[in-house]
Specification:
7 strands; alpha/beta; 211 residues; 4 helices
């Protein structure tokens, strides 16, 4: 998140991603940083982009001279990205060791488009339990519930199948489960594909009217 977005989460004053934070005309100009990524990596990233394009009006396009654009790199460990469209350069990092899988790339691209984590949604406590005792103290804020105006759900309930969930031991300080579905038959944190509700949410955020 940008500093403005972090301050927004703490204060709860304004939405994290507003209309002005969405990508104009549903287009995301991008550059792949070949200093850290290979042509094979680029192909995997573009295939993940295509999976989003197949179910939405979003289009990822090679950057020409656009002022606001995305740089996809792999210069550091982990998977992370900026949230929504920020002025100027936006960043997404996909570490080749451990992150270069389609589902993880789609997850980060959804952040780039402005979609947050399911775990922070207002109605999450009806669907999951957080075992706070096992959560690393420095990670507690990452599991807080955000107000509806900070993280609008577009009328779509919590989605246990979302690609935007954390896994059951994410943020654990001792390897024990931190995020547990109330329905013991369910699993959480899949990194295979967009769920039906993920697709609905994305198309609510970026309807064809923006095209």
């Amino acid at each position: 998140m940008t500093e403005r977005q972090k301050e927004t989460v703490i204060s709860g004053r304004d939405p994290i991603v507003t209309e002005v934070d969405k990508w104009v005309n549903n287009l995301v100009p991008y550059v792949i940083d070949f200093e850290f990524l290979t042509l094979v990596h680029a192909k995997l990233i573009q295939e993940a982009m295509a999976k989003i394009e197949d179910v939405s009006t979003i289009r990822f396009v090679p950057r020409k001279q656009e002022q606001d654009y995305l740089v996809v790199s792999g210069e550091s460990s982990g998977c992370w990205s900026t949230l929504g469209r920020n002025k100027g350069l936006n960043r997404m990092n996909i570490c080749p060791e451990g992150c270069m899988i389609e589902g993880a790339i789609i997850h980060q691209l959804m952040h780039v488009l402005g979609v947050g984590h399911m775990t922070n949604q207002q109605d999450r406590d009806y669907y999951i339990d957080i075992n706070w005792y096992h959560v690393r103290p420095e990670s507690v804020q990452s599991l807080l519930i955000y107000e509806g105006r900070v993280m609008p759900n577009y009328g779509i309930p919590f989605d246990i199948d979302s690609i935007m969930n954390f896994g059951p031991t994410h943020f654990s300080r001792d390897g024990m489960e931190t995020i547990v579905p109330k329905n013991g038959n369910q699993t959480i944190g899949q990194r295979k594909e967009l769920s039906g509700k993920d697709i609905r949410r994305l198309n609510m955020m970026y309807p064809c009217g923006y095209c």
